[in-house]
Design brief:
Elements: H1 3-24, H2 30-40, H3 46-55, H4 60-67, H5 86-99, H6 113-132, H7 136-167, H8 171-183
Helix pairs in contact: 1-2, 1-3, 1-6, 2-3, 3-8, 6-7, 7-8
Length: about 220
């Protein structure tokens, strides 16, 4: 097996784990439980699988009481970056999404933890596809964007959620957040904001770009 193919398979496996993590932060419903159980069969991480098992007993009411619009804990990034311009944060997130053709079909806002996790999984699939197509440059673009997005947006959000969900005893959500926090670097005191020159605008046409936009709920 070539190194590129091996790296692609690893990225696909990682994408499945990120997909399961993202699902765990979505609002529970009947089909949601089935999807969580199905995706859990495809991942190896024991922590995420354990959270998925506990999530089978989750209720919509409990979720909304914890992460809903008036819940005990906010799942949105802008909540935890109160000394920064929320418009700039949201604009930066939008820039990432648009650059890579990511149009989540979700009820949640773009800075919701489930949506941000979904974007990371999507970039992993783009990277894997590019490697399988023999396009290492496109793969590197996706990998670089993923690292920057995680450091800039998901790391501070994951750290804040881990602290608050643990304090609120949020069962599977606390377990999922612990797994998420273990996958991202610890945030800096002041989360970095990419300079205005940071541009991935050419990436919408990279491998796994236009042809995959019909299935971007990952």
């Amino acid at each position: 097996m070539s190194a590129e193919r091996s790296a692609a398979i690893s990225s696909i496996a990682d994408a499945a784990e990120w997909r399961l993590l993202g699902l765990l932060f979505e609002r529970p419903h009947h089909e949601w439980r089935r999807e969580v159980a199905t995706v859990a069969q495809e991942v190896a991480d024991a922590g995420i699988r354990a959270a998925a098992r506990v999530a089978q007993d989750a209720t919509e009411g409990r979720y909304l009481a914890m992460l809903g619009p008036c819940g005990a804990v906010s799942p949105r990034e802008v909540t935890y970056r109160s000394f920064e311009d929320p418009g700039r944060i949201l604009a930066d997130i939008t820039g990432f999404y648009e650059a890579f053709g990511f149009h989540p079909q979700a009820e949640d806002p773009i800075d919701h933890v489930a949506v941000e996790i979904g974007f990371v999984g999507y970039l992993l699939l783009k990277e894997a596809y590019a490697r399988l197509q023999g396009d290492p440059r496109a793969a590197e673009v996706s990998a670089t964007a993923r690292q920057r997005f995680v450091e800039t947006h998901l790391s501070p959000l994951a750290a804040a959620l881990a602290e608050r969900l643990n304090a609120n005893g949020a069962d599977y959500l606390a377990q999922a957040t612990a797994s998420l926090a273990a996958r991202v670097p610890k945030p800096t005191a002041t989360p970095p904001v990419p300079p205005d020159g940071d541009d991935f605008s050419a990436c919408g046409g990279c491998a796994f770009g236009e042809e995959s936009q019909e299935d971007e709920t990952l």
